[in-house]
Amino acid sequence: MSGINVTIDEKNCVANSGETILSVAKRYDIEIPTLCFHPSVSVYGACGICLVEVEGNKKLLRACATEVWEGMKVHTKSERAEKARKLALELLFSDHTGDCLPPCMNACPAHTHCQGYVGLIADGEYDAALALIKEQIPLPASIGRVCPHPCESACRRKLAEEAISIAALKSFAADWDLGREESYLPEKQPPTGKRVAIVGAGPAGLTMAYYLAIKGHSADIYEAMPQAGGMLRYGIPEYRLPKAVLDREIALIEKLGVKIRCNVKIGKDIAFESLEKEYDAVYLAIGAWQSAPLRCEGEQAEGVLGGIDFLRRAVQDQPTSMGRRVAVIGGGNTAMDACRTAIRLGAEKVYVLYRRTRSEMPAEDIEIVEAMEEGVEFKFLVAPIRILTENGHVAGIELQQMELGEPDDSGRRRPVPVEGKTETLALDTVIAAIGQKVVAEGLPVKLTDWNTIAADAHTYLTDRKGVFAGGDGINRGPGIAVESIGHARECADIIDSYLNGDLIPRTEQYLVKRDDLTAADFADREKLPRVRRNVIPPEIRRTNFEEVASTITEEQAKAEAARCLECGCADYGECDLIKYGQRFDVRPDRFGAEPHRRNGADDMVNVHHNPDKCVLCGLCVRYSDEHGDGSLGLIGRGFDTQVRPDYSLSKPEDHLEELKGCAEICPTGALIEKTTGKKVNTVMRRQFVK
Question: In angstroms, what CA-CA distances link 371 with 146, 186, 233, 352?
């Protein structure tokens, strides 16, 4: 050692003559962010991320290019240096276009690794696909059957023809696993001795118990109903979700050591305060079990039922006394479940009454189509005025004709009455399926103005120490099941941090997302039909509660999975740019710059080249010059500069190793080595799991 004494972040370091600040810092495990530095190439100093503050210097210095001197005092995390780094990163991101994660994953409320498990199914790696699904969803066979799959709405394949049938692929992998002699169980961490009480055995409560058990904590669920499952059991008809499937998935959760105590109502059978005393934390997953009222005259009459009350009675084989003529009011999936259940229970005439048009209905289109096939009659642009009664029982309904006016807060056109236009229907039963409400009796926690549990948006904490909440029962109220699962998955990590003595809140991480693609970008794709599940004919299925749609076959699953466009970046888990962007909370949109669109400019034999992701760090060009024949170079000037290959004096095949090396050191995913089959997804599987 030459004995040059340097101080970096108050740490005394001894440097060699000619060493840079960056090299010394690396040797002493002091991180200085950089994109354009790599030990295999000469220093260039292009990115501006490694700026540091040196005492006695007015300007910030580039750590990768500045040699140390005796007595140098370096500050790598000063406010000035951090601010300069953030600015440099935001400028780089302003012309960095692409998808960090695939749009399907971004759209999933549980952030399921859709592209990863779809790719694994395409490769026939079903066990790995199932394990990846269960990183986020512990009930995939059930959710795959009932989820309205927002992932598919975001799928880019629909720009070519039709979206990937992601939900069907999830069900396939899950059913394949349940059909094995030994179904998948994740490895549990050693017992921590910590205990958590969970109130509610629906999707959120079961999910919380599953992930806490994996983390080594003891999880006890208290459920008011006779069996676990929540709305998956009592709000979803058998023809959509066979309860035998749900039972098998719940049994796997219990096999992890989770205890479920049914027929126990907190506040009645057990005092809430006793849970706080007995357990290290409490998680409230109470759901939303009360049907929203119609708020019209006559709704107290005998024969007026709530949607979820009707479905629960049907599941429990309780008499409904519907009569012959039934009307279901509402346009969501609960309304579809109710009308199709009424048909199966023997109603001769079933109406769905909805105040908007079909195009505004929130229910899945397939549910509407299948209900129509089964004989349900839809009446649009009508709203109930009053329930007609005879001797206190429903006899009919008076309806107001509506028309669509200006859009409301939901973005849909508001229905407004058409003056003087009404009609009546003769009925025996009215089922109100217009929403659900939370009942928080016996829980001494702060509630919102909507009578839901008030939970912090970043920690899921209530106003009581150690008491967390999630699912349909919190804040803005009921959503879809996969959203409740997403809440619980996030909160499981937060509760784990709380039990370990340092509560770590949820944070929103910056991601690069692409929203400018159109059908023209996929015009060259082969048109491949979406897989269709086999469905029982309507004249047969309307007479029983057998599962309507069958699981797709292995051949269908592999073909469907192979349709995936692999939108997400295969280099996401190793991308230095996004790592620093999230660390410094970048907001590049503030510049208002319009990024270039250069995608598809080059395909470099054995390397995928996406110029839209390039930030011109120069690493690949320098590697090409110093370790190859200089096949890559920078063309253009200023904002229009690009990295492009030059094969004028040779063949592309002569540069395979050179290009491979360039891809290996690329910090942004602009250059990625090509792989066979769907193995890019396997890489993504490993990288997405944080």
Answer: 16, 39, 21, 10
Which residue in 248, 260, 255 sits closest to 223, CA to CA? 260
Phi, then psi, of 206 in degrees rounded to 5? -65, -40
- CA dist list (Å): 107 to 11, 151, 264, 559: 45, 5, 36, 23
Category of 98 on φ-ψ map: left (φ > 0), alpha (ψ -120 to 50) or beta: left
C-beta separation of 114 from 133 below 8 A: no
At 408-424, the pLDDT tens digits run 887 788 999 999 999 99
At residue 35, φ and ψ (nearest 5 deg) are -110, -35
pLDDT (tens digit per residue) in 634-684: 887 666 778 877 766 567 777 888 889 999 999 998 998 887 544 444 444
Burial bucket for residue 389 (CB in 10 Å: 0-12, 13-18, 19+): middle
| Res 681: pLDDT | 46
Nearest to 279 by CA among 468, 138, 504: 468
Q: What domains does the chain contain, in order, with CATH numbers?
A: 4-93 (3.10.20.740), 103-184+512-561 (1.10.1060.10), 195-284+441-499 (3.50.50.60), 291-436 (3.50.50.60), 572-688 (3.30.70.20)
Give the residue among 259, 334, 255 at the shortest CA–CA distance from 292. 334
Task: Provide long-range contacts, Cβ within 8 A and 24+ apart, for 488-491.
Answer: 488/203, 488/204, 488/205, 488/207, 488/208, 488/211, 488/283, 488/285, 489/110, 489/136, 489/137, 489/207, 489/211, 490/460, 491/208, 491/283, 491/460
What are the structure tokens assigned to 464, written together?
């009581």
Across the beta sheet with 607-609, what order do the strands follow?
Answer: 602-604, 607-609, 671-673
Rounded to 5 degrees, what are φ and ψ at 129? -65, -45
Percent of the chain with pLDDT over 70: 95
Whether residue 599 has pLDDT greater than 90: no
Asked if 75 contacts 81 with a C-beta cutoff of 8 angstroms, the reply is yes
Phi and psi torsions of 386, nearest 5°:
-160, 155
What are the start-end ranges of the E strands in 137-286? 195-199, 218-222, 259-261, 281-284
User: Rounded to 10 degrees, what is the CA torsion of 208, 210, 212, 218?
Assistant: 110
In this predicted model, what pLDDT tens digit does every residue of 429-442 receive, in sequence order? Answer: 999 999 999 999 88
Of the listed ranges 255-269, 509-523, 601-615, the least confidently predicted one is: 601-615
State how beta strands 382-390 and 290-291 pair: unpaired
Rounded to 5°, the CA angle 77-96-681 comes to 100
Q: What distance in Å separates the CA atoms of residue 663 and residue 668, rounded to the nearest whole number?
A: 10
CB 96 within 8 A of CB 613: yes
63 with 85: CB under 8 angstroms?
Answer: no
* CA dist., res. 151 & res. 106, Å (int): 8
